[in-house]
Amino acid sequence: MDSFEVNKILGALLGTCLGVLSINIAAGAIFTPVKPAKPGYEIAVPEQTPAGKPAEPEKQEPIEQLLAKADVGRGENAAKKCERADIIAYLNSLSDNPAPLPKAAEAAGSPKPQ
């Protein structure tokens, strides 16, 4: 291989590198993101209640009303009593202030032992 062939190969390699470098510089100039005036992200903060006015707690419907709306225990594919009790226990476990669940004897309507 003579020096002319080596010069052609090295020239092609150098030309390719210069082409890639110029494309990189042009792309950086075209697609540079706009820098914000104030660094950071804007965060949405929920409204605060005034100091003199107490916050109203979220209104929650009783479990029985929720189950009635969902038609639990009705129709062809009705839930069994134990499934209904499991649903009530699960929903009760999600509450911050869980209500005490009735005992099985009280729920069935049998008189309380004295």
Quick overview:
With about 110 residues, this protein is mainly alpha-helical. It has helices spanning about 5-30, 65-70, 80-95, 105. Helix content is about 45%, strand content about 0%.
Task: Explain how this protein is built.
The chain is mostly helical. Among the domains are: 1-32; 63-99, no CATH class. 46% of the residues lie in helices and 0% in strands. It is built from four helices and no strands. It has helices at residues 3-30, 63-69, 81-93, 104-107. It is elongated, with a radius of gyration of 36 Å. The model has no long low-confidence stretch (mean pLDDT 76).
How would you characterize the largest beta sheet? none
Shape estimate: elongated
Unreliable segments (pLDDT under 50, ≥5 consecutive)?
Answer: none
Instruction: Sketch the topology as an H/E string, one letter per element.
Output: HHHH
How far is the first residue's CA from the last residue's CA?
113 Å
Average pLDDT works out at 76
Structural class: mainly alpha
Rg from Cα: 36 Å
Strand content: under 5%
**How many helical stretches?**
4
The beta-strand count equals 0
Helix content: 40-55%
Descriptive labels:
mainly alpha; 114 residues
Q: How do the helices and strands line up, and which of them pair or pack?
A:
Elements: H1 3-30, H2 63-69, H3 81-93, H4 104-107
